[in-house]
From TrEMBL:
It is a peripheral membrane protein. This is Lipid droplet-regulating VLDL assembly factor AUP1. Keywords: Endoplasmic reticulum, Lipid droplet, Membrane, Transmembrane, Transmembrane helix. It is found in: Endoplasmic reticulum membrane; Lipid droplet. The gene is AUP1. The chain crosses the membrane at residues 23-52. Residues 308-350 form the CUE domain. Residues 364-382 have a biased composition (Low complexity). Belongs to the AUP1 family. Residues 356-400 are annotated as: Disordered. It holds the Pfam family CUE. It comes from the Eukaryota.
């Protein structure tokens, strides 16, 4: 059976905080006065919670008291079958949903999360992060964490290999391999977050903004599920170990394991800001909106959204000239992302019949340099077959990932050649 297609970045990150449903929006407006009163009251209570957590030593009693006080702040933490938590495991691996995931899990068990981003100091310490004093490479960080974990008196590490928060509903970001090179055994922790009226987190929102909205809403429920410990197999690489744990955690959460990274999230947010979609509506809503074919719309009703899809399709067409333009537009209407559409076409997820040179009349005739570059890319990248994707889909996730990386590398080489040829031709034409 063919696996479901990986969701695009527009489904993994929420860019819109308020609901689009009219009934929920009306309920939010009616609740707003109560929410403002709760926000002001919880700000004072939150200061007391912070002082109590700083004054009491780390113990079961302290976690119980702080957990009860957090329920007044609207933070409810539930855990399923805490007996599965392995006391011998030194590294916990969890998915990332909010800015406060490490604080929530710390209410259940003693653990430390190293500060990877942000300047060290009081803010970093007050948020519950552990400062290691390592400002060098990732290898130095791993060595420091190995030395930390070698002392049995230190609490276990809680790491988030996604390195960026998602909405927790569609998929997991690709796990980084460095957390899996610290110890040979890890314990996955599945985390799910729910709240009424508004979304759990917005992709580009700061932790202060998210804290204020947490105090505003009636409650936020964190569900923590401990999974059995996962040991490293004999001679298993850290990348393979990370991929295996990612698949297990995705199955537990009922989501898809993707190959998107934190860098893809950054690019997605830049794209939303550039297209002015961020202040108005989530990208998932725009991607799901039905679009009329270009042949059925009049010249006066040609929407800006269709113009944007056409411009994106031209960019894909430049990279993959053998793919029909209508196939590209159809997939772009679903993904709303040039990179995702290119990956879908290269991976064979979108079947099509290669377009002949005679039939390609939608684009202007390529120049000699463009024709040579196109022939180079067609020689380095195999034309996807029109057969069903089930016959092309590799059995091993590692093989699928390597294949995608090879094709992406070929695309990058082609783009560099086109850039060099274009600017070289421009300089030659402008020289005396």
């Amino acid at each position: 059976m063919e696996p479901p297609p990986a969701p695009g970045p527009e489904r993994l990150f929420d860019s819109h905080r308020f609901p689009t449903d009219g009934f929920l929006l009306l309920a939010l407006l009616l609740y707003a006065p109560v929410g403002l009163c709760l926000l002001i009251l919880r700000l004072f209570i939150g200061v007391h919670v912070f002082l109590v957590s700083c004054a009491l030593p780390d113990s079961v009693l302290r976690r119980f008291i702080v957990r009860v006080m957090c329920s007044v702040l609207g933070l409810f933490v539930r855990q399923s079958d805490p007996r599965l938590r392995d006391v011998n495991v030194r590294v916990y691996i969890a998915n990332h949903v909010t800015h406060f995931d490490h604080n929530v899990i710390n209410l259940l068990t003693s653990c430390n999360t190293p500060a990877l981003n942000g300047a060290p100091g009081f803010i970093c310490w007050s948020r519950g992060f552990m400062e290691l004093g390592v400002t060098g490479s990732r290898a130095e960080l791993v060595d420091s964490l190995k030395a930390y974990s070698s002392h049995r008196g230190n609490p276990p590490l809680l790491l988030f290999p996604e390195e960026a928060a998602t909405n927790g509903r569609a998929g997991l970001l690709r796990f980084s391999s460095w957390p899996f090179s610290i110890m040979d055994m890890v314990q996955p922790v599945a985390l799910q977050v729910q709240r009424p009226l508004i979304t759990v987190s917005v992709a580009d929102s700061s932790w202060i903004t998210e804290l204020l909205w947490t105090f505003f809403v009636p409650f936020t429920v964190y569900q923590v599920r401990w999974m059995p410990s996962v040991p490293r197999r004999a001679e298993e690489l850290s990348e393979d170990f990370a991929l295996r744990v990612q698949e297990l955690l995705a199955m537990e959460l009922g989501v898809v394991s993707t190959r998107l990274t934190a860098a893809d999230k950054t690019e997605h947010m830049k794209r939303l800001r550039h297209t002015s979609l961020l202040p108005f509506a989530p990208a998932s809503t725009l991607a799901a909106r039905p679009r009329m074919p270009s042949g059925l719309t009049g010249a006066g009703s040609f929407a800006p959204e269709d113009m944007r899809i056409t411009a994106m399709a031209q960019r894909v067409k430049e990279v993959l000239p053998h793919v029909p333009l209508e196939v590209i537009k159809t997939d772009l209407a679903q993904t709303n992302c040039v990179d995702t559409t290119i990956a879908n076409l290269l991976e064979g997820r979108v079947p099509f019949f290669p377009e002949s040179k005679e039939a390609n009349t939608d684009l202007p005739a390529p120049s000699t340099s463009q024709a040579s570059a196109a022939s180079g890319i067609q020689g380095s990248i195999a034309v996807p077959s029109s057969k069903p994707a089930t016959k092309q889909f590799a059995k091993s996730p590692v093989e699928r990932h390597l294949s995608l990386q090879e094709r992406k590398r070929a695309l990058y080489d082609y783009a560099r050649r086109r850039f060099a040829e274009k600017h070289g031709a421009a300089r030659a034409g402008g020289s005396p």
